[in-house]
Amino acid sequence: MLPLKERFDLPQGVIYLDGNSLGPLPRGAVARATEVMTQQWGQELIRAWNTAGWMDLPVRVGDRIAPLIGAVPGTVATGDTLSIKVYQALVAALKLRPDRRLILSDKGNFPSDLYMAQGLIETLDQGYRLLTPDPEDVLNTLSARGEEVAVLMLTHVDYRTGRMHDMAALTQAAQAAGAVVIWDLAHSAGAMALDLTGSKAEFAVGCTYKYLNGGPGAPAFIYARPDLIEAVEPALAGWMGHEAPFAMDPAYRPAMSTERLRVGTPPIVQLAILDAALDAWEGVNLTELRAATMTLSDRFIAEVERRCPALTLASPRDARRRGAQVAFAFEHGYPAMQALIDQGVIGDFRAPDIMRFGFTPLFLDEDDVVAAAAVLERVIADGLYREARFQNRAKVT
Ligand SMILES: *Cc1c(COP(=O)(O)O)cnc(C)c1O
């Protein structure tokens, strides 16, 4: 049944291999945003919080994300950005292990996740330390120093190489050592079937503008294991996480649900767009999606290696150990990506030398992948990337 290209508004003549960074525009999103702005905001004005269900939208959308990450409804709160959700999860996790001082992550983690941890450590000023071993050494570090680890905080799929951690095994090892576990699912949610409940992890966070196609700046999500929600002390005690926001109680009383991880007023237009985007997942079997991703990415690797010997695979060769993206290292990676985009094949570049391609079978098929590899071959073999206009680094790469 895949792909489902008709569920997206993709420009003609473009092969989009960057749905891992910003998902494309889902078909119903423009109509939904227009309805929210003209009918709801425009006509209903402030009444829309009640009459158009705005107040319930963050919860409703969280409940629609839950099955996509292997969680049950009522366990996922939406809002803010992923960086904020990382911070909240980290504070909540540290409070669950007050006598431990190590935060264990890995060197390949997304910079913002590490920055949030570093900033929090400085704010707390209580002797916390962040350990960032090589991703392959996380398990060893847990064996050696697990008793000191308060929190294991990892991104499931590496943003640069696509290398995937073994979520079940690492969660089990960390919890056996007494640590709390946070998974960042930024590059996993919507890319594969996940079993958050089965993993028994305490927390998970993620964003919705990548594989979930919620649009630029779409709200993030946070999951807390339902049995410990009442033990979670929200670090950012905003009124939308209060048990009764409109009681206007000067004392903070957290909601007795995952909603306590909300902070302020929800971004309604963006949430409505995300709600429309989640329609694209109707009837999609995530196990089939994963199989299709593996086929597409394996085919791309084979084509690129045959056609472009100057590029070196920087992702695990075994598709079972990769997420839905493939990275190739190339010393002229930045201008090569610009030249490729100029030819209608859109991927992206991550410093220092990674050309990154996402394989999202909701809207890609094998013909797209082969055609993209053929264009890449031309860009490299004919030296198209040497043109001056491709050399200057833009703000977003
Ligand atoms: C994309 C991404 C982010 C981005 O965080 P924002 O606050 O939404 O900008 C953070 N962490 C990881 C692992 C990501 O992949």
Short description:
With 397 residues, this protein is α/β, with parallel strands linked by helices. It has helices at residues 29-44, 48-51, 57-65, 82-96, 111-124, 138-145, 167-176, 196-199, 268-278, 286-307, 333-342, 366-381, and strands at 15-16, 76-78, 102-104, 129-131, 149-155, 180-184, 203-206, 221-224, 312-313, 325-329, 345-346, 348-350, 354-358.
Secondary structure blueprint with pairings:
Blueprint: E1 15-16, H1 29-44, H2 48-51, H3 57-65, E2 76-78, H4 82-96, E3 102-104, H5 111-124, E4 129-131, H6 138-145, E5 149-155, H7 167-176, E6 180-184, H8 196-199, E7 203-206, E8 221-224, H9 268-278, H10 286-307, E9 312-313, E10 325-329, H11 333-342, E11 345-346, E12 348-350, E13 354-358, H12 366-381
Parallel strand pairs: 1-11, 3-4, 3-5, 5-6, 6-7
Antiparallel strand pairs: 2-8, 7-8, 9-10, 10-13, 12-13
Helix pairs in contact: 1-9, 3-9, 4-5, 10-12
Structure write-up:
With 397 residues, this protein is an alpha/beta fold. It is 35% helix and 12% strand. The chain is built from 12 helices and 13 strands. It has helices at 29-44, 48-51, 57-65, 82-96, 111-124, 138-145, 167-176, 196-199, 268-278, 286-307, 333-342, 366-381; strands at residues 15-16, 76-78, 102-104, 129-131, 149-155, 180-184, 203-206, 221-224, 312-313, 325-329, 345-346, 348-350, 354-358. The strands form 3 sheets. Strands 2-8-7-6-5-3-4 form a 7-stranded mixed beta sheet, with helices on both faces. A 4-stranded antiparallel beta sheet has the order 9-10-13-12, with helices on one face. Helix 4 (82-96) crosses helix 5 (111-124). It is globular and about 65 Å long. The model has no long low-confidence stretch (mean pLDDT 97). Pyridoxal-5'-phosphate binds next to helix 4 and helix 5.
